[in-house]
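To close the section, here is one more complete example, presented without commentary so you can practise reading it yourself. The ligand is LLP.
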Amino acid sequence: MNPHFHYRDGRLFLEQVALDEIAGRFGTPCYVYSRTALTEAYQAFEQALSGTPHLVCYAVKANPNLAILNVFAKLGAGFDIVSGGELQRVLAAGGDAGKVVFSGVGKTADEMRRALDAGILCFNVESAPELLRLNEVAGSLGKIAPVSLRVNPDVDAKTHPYISTGLKQNKFGVAYEDALALYRQARDLPHLHIRGIDCHIGSQLTEVSPFAAAVGKVLQLVDALAAEGIALEHIDLGGGLGICYDDETPPAIADYVAALLSALNGRAEKLILEPGRVLVGNAGTLLTRVEYLKHGEEKNFVIVDAAMNDLMRPALYDAYHNIVPATQNDLPKMTCEIVGPVCETGDFLGHARELSIEPNALLAVLSAGAYGMSMASNYNTRPRAAEVMVDVDRVHLIREREKISDLFSGEHLLS
Ligand code: LLP
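Output:
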């Protein structure tokens, strides 16, 4: 549990605010984030990188709420985006386009135009056809597009197969063997300017060795490029550092950065990182209230008002999130399944948890700040949750709970 979550007289607080008060005021399900925890995680990167030319680009997909983007923008962060929508959010939140890198395998011509107009720092190009399209789009606007090639270093990130991205069989990046030839092509295209190289090998990594292996492979390419007169301004090593959900022991941010710097061995190119989860994951929780206790033939079901549409990670990856009471009680503990109201067997938040549950209890699903709200859907016509940010003793509603009428406002009956 992030140290900013703590119990005081049996009540769970985030910073100086009791979570039951937030639930009372804004209802449930409700995501709550700590500004201090966000800031501390970001500052840990800045501190570890202080002697090195660098840019920390927050991976917007982890949690794109405008207030969160704004907190990072004010701290000087750049942003890693994967869509025109994320670019628009970054700009609306006061982010600097000149610090934006644009990743993703399927950038449309329209998204490229918008990013060129905004003046982003770099397109992280993932294939030969994308490179050609970018050259064409930039030419049609009379602009020069800054590019980096995302290389696939073919290293095993040792994480869940759905969030492993740096293996040969994954759709991401340019095959390592093809990278040199593609850089030569990029050099010869008139509307491109080669700025860097990038890789991202996966998410929720709990060891540094795969990162170090990827750096080694990237540096071999950087040297091969230099030998051909292609000098790079930056090396972007992506994101991927894991957090503790259960009993994992990922390296601290400082140790992860130290390992990268040691593998980079004093290179002069600017270092770009794209952390997502480690900046926001443990800064947030999902509050949910118990609706029913149902004693099935084999299991005790605790039916809560949050579901897989609010937090999809358990259903999608069988991910573990610790679930704790927001107000403690002395009732005996029981083994229970924490499930939501959605009509799917996969709709669970936790299996076989030992909890003492009283009717109407408020639970906090921890480590939910990353890939929680950002992957929420309206399945079963469920409005998406409210989001709140705590800042020491102040409470800000940073996203209103969706209204049911919002959900079908763009739909039309046959005329
Ligand atoms: N850069 C690129 C190019 C990425 O694809 C990603 C994440 C990141 C940076 C940030 O990675 P992070 O530091 O957050 O690990 N929905 C999954 C995670 C998907 C990650 C996708 N890419 C989950 O809930 O675990």
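Once you have examined the tokens, check your reading against these statements. Residues 59, 62, 80, 103, 163, 200, 203-204, 238-241, 274-278, 313, 371 surround LLP (CB under 6 Å). The mean pLDDT is 96.
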